[in-house]
Amino acid sequence: MKRTPFVGDREYFPQIGRIQYEGPESDNPLAFKAYNPMELVGGKTMEEHLRFAVCYWHTFWGSGADPFGPGTRAFPWQVDGDAMTQARARIDAAFEFFTKLDVPFYCFHDRDLAPEGASVAESEKNLQTMVALAKERQQASGMRLLWGTANLFSHPRYMNGAATNPDLAVVALAGAQVKAALDATVELGGVNYVFWGGREGYSCLFNTDTRKELDHFARFLELARDYGRSIGFEGTFLIEPKPMEPMKHQYDFDAQTVIGFLRHHGLDGDFKLNIEANHATLAGHSFAHELQMCVDAGLLGSIDANRGNPQNGWDTDQFPLDMNDCVAAMAIVLASGGFQNGGLNFDAKLRRESTDLEDLFLAHIGGMDAFARGLVIAERMVKDPVLGRLRGDRYKSFESDLGQRFESGQLGLADLRNFAAGYGEPERQSGKQEQLENRMNDLMFA
User: Which has the closest alpha carbon to 65: 317, 403, 408, 336?
Assistant: First the structure.
């Protein structure tokens, strides 16, 4: 869809025009070297494959603050006035940025878009006001909402969780917030709705009824699903796994934990997973592993594209520039048939030391180019007969009549015993890992 650059009453990035593709020979830091939105890769454009989104929170709220010091950036949209005046300035800056960067989607938490009020009714009114402005800007620019969500982790009331909180009054407030966020997502045509259980977990096992809390979590998700469907939400509900931080243990620890939870409670027909790269590594997995587990279960929904720092033990949310990660991720997504409703949301923030407004553009350009390169390389890998043969050869024995009968459930344990007794000791079969990794490098640098 053709998008139109948006500038409100004030231009917040006057020195920066629309970011264009200039190709690999360009030395312009404010241009794409690899991401050419209309370039065809495997029959689809790069834009259709990658479905990039900008997150509202880190990009327009991220001041550079960390646990050891206050922010280092001052934004021009931090204008004088009350919280709603500032929210109006921020949304104009956001849509100017989205359209100058030329991404098709954005994502938000309810409290990113509109401030919390002194009551449930006032909070709902604030959000409705800002949703009306966002809808006007979407219509003027052609931007779309990849997903909406509710911030159920920042307010002190959620110190013991939201849906899993031991106090029903807190659970009710969380429900009110999700209802309003779902209303907003539907009004803005959002194609997904995300739950990140930032405090759905525990700090002390011995003062926690884990069975009750997990049952409550499932019940809360059922209520949200039912309400969403009742107001016409036809998109995908997403759960975003994370193992810890802020809680010591979070119930949505990793992909397989969430998959098991959804299946146990019969929610896997409506819910899929939103995988964040940095959360995967915090869980002790690779980004690729978490994506593959979701694909295997048929439950990959969307991706939060970022990375962690192996020298830091927390969620650093850096922009995704590791080519091995980008290639592996896109190879898995392509092999699974590509995104349906999902996309690549840059849940990433500038480093504390990056203080210029243009750094917001530079960071996103780098991430978009990295995934564009990853897409092109991944298509080579998915189509490569050598990689396919190296993997397929390891499972050739299951192509036999006996192997197919085993996979279809026609053999018993005694049948396996009799086969083993007659076959003897099998020859060792090399995994050819080194050859495979060499071939992957050959394809990456072809």
Answer: 317
